[in-house]
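Justification of computing resources. Each target in the renewal requires a structure prediction run like the one illustrated here; the chain below, 74 residues long, is used simply to show the kind of job we budget for.
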Amino acid sequence: MYTATDLTNVEEAIRAIIAGEREVSMTMDGKSATYTDANLKDLQSLRTEIINDIAINAGTCSLRTYAKQGGRGA
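Resulting structure tokens:
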């Protein structure tokens, strides 16, 4: 389960890469990872996954709604 802090960290990493930083390091769930501009799409996908996970766990998006929308969340 992801947290709002995870979402903030990923969004900051995305902004840093877009702003021109060559490498961005972050830690989530006790694991460190380094991302570059080549990983931007991976970070954006991770951001979407985190948003969906938080919504489902907060009860703002049911699994049925999530599945109906093709996995795009509420």
